[in-house]
Amino acid sequence: EAQVTQNPRYLITVTGKKLTVTCSQNMNHEYMSWYRQDPGLGLRQIYYSMNVEVTDKGDVPEGYKVSRKEKRNFPLILESPSPNQTSLYFCASSPILSNQPQHFGDGTRLSIL
Amino acid sequence: AQTVTQSQPEMSVQEAETVTLSCTYDTSENNYYLFWYKQPPSRQMILVIRQEAYKQQNATENRFSVNFQKAAKSFSLKISDSQLGDTAMYFCAFSGGSNYKLTFGKGTLLTVNP
Question: A52: closest CA among A31, A33, A35, A76?
């Protein structure tokens, strides 16, 4: 089954404790992206990657890191999480072909205390 | 920079009736794509319908159709024969340019009443 898998689905943690949210896709997509969703703001792009070893900032990259060492994986790293990073996070992927629709993971709810 | 505006934070409709959700956007791109995504309480992001800007014909997917007005930069979603399972947050999204980024509106919460 074609899918984007995010882990964990839920996480409650404390300020300053490094965490990683994993994202993996099995569709051989070149493009991957992270979004955060906050009430009243819709979804905003954090980082994206056009292919292996190619990453770039989105609209709200502060406080986040990403890496793309393999085509299927695109982890989101919070080196020193803060309460303002409490949010719902989505990973998405698509082929780089005429703006094909992005496939979304099921989301990760992060709470930073 | 592209912007997407959904002016209706919340809407409600009776089961079996028709409802239209509004979306306007702003861009200097000539070639772009527009989407409507549905987010039910399960939080999944589900693609409802997609429109290519170069196509004049409005996209249709079963009970869902769009009214795409390129000159007015308007992209509304019409849901016919509304069902209880249509209750969800609906996001309008724009994609254009070289980075494939989706720019989302703030969403419209649709409630279908029995």
Answer: A31
